[in-house]
Design brief:
- The protein is mainly α and 125 residues long.
- The protein contains 2 helices and 2 strands.
- The protein has a two-stranded antiparallel sheet.
- The longest helix is centred in the middle third of the chain and has 92 residues, at 31-122.
- The relative contact order is 0.04.
């Protein structure tokens, strides 16, 4: 008599000799007791897998919370970079305005010198 059971992705064969070894006193374990033993082994295996899955889920939750924190920080960095870019643009515009003022002063100086030259040539004092 050979009993074959499959659980937890492995195959176990219980031969008649092994059944005789498992006897207690004069009685041999009947099929119900064998099935109960297999169910208990399967329950232990499933409990172990559930515990492993719980650990994996906890690690995933921890990773998710870390990713949320990183995402928040990245958003802050992006907003700060945008503010810095705006300030740099304003500074560049101010430099352009200063250059424009300098050109205006040079233009007015040349115009004033030209008018002074013309007025002295015409004899106006």
């Amino acid at each position: 008599m050979v009993h074959t059971t499959t659980y937890n992705r492995t195959s176990h064969v219980i031969c008649g000799k092994e059944l005789l070894k498992q006897k207690k006193g004069n009685s041999i374990m009947n099929d119900v007791e064998v099935k109960i033993a297999h169910l208990e082994e399967r329950e232990k295996s499933n409990t172990k897998r559930w515990d492993e899955h719980d650990d994996k889920i906890q690690k995933l939750e921890d990773t998710y919370s870390l990713m949320q924190n990183v995402n928040y920080r990245i958003e802050n960095v992006e907003s700060n970079i945008e503010k810095i870019n705006t300030k740099l643009d304003e500074k560049n515009n101010e430099k352009g305005k200063k250059w424009d003022k300098f050109i205006d002063y040079v233009f007015y100086f040349v115009l004033c010198a030209l008018l002074t030259y013309i007025s002295t040539r015409l004899g106006l004092k």
